[in-house]
Design goal:
mainly alpha; 7% strand; elongated
């Protein structure tokens, strides 16, 4: 089970636009929490890198 906490940008937020995404706060530490093999949905990494790697492995040996 995961808890999601919304961080307000203003004193009394009414709409979701007035909340700060929690990912902005955790962005600095996420690199340490996510395995190096994870490539999708991580800034600076592309899922296509894993596809190319798999292709090269299968066609090299």
């Amino acid at each position: 089970m995961t808890d999601i906490v919304l961080i307000p940008k203003v004193q009394k937020p009414i709409t979701l636009v007035k909340f700060r995404p929690i990912s902005n706060r955790l962005q600095d530490v996420m690199g340490n929490c996510i395995d190096k093999a994870q490539s999708a949905f991580v800034p600076g990494r592309l899922i296509s890198d894993n596809v190319l790697l798999a292709y090269e492995v299968l066609h090299t040996f």
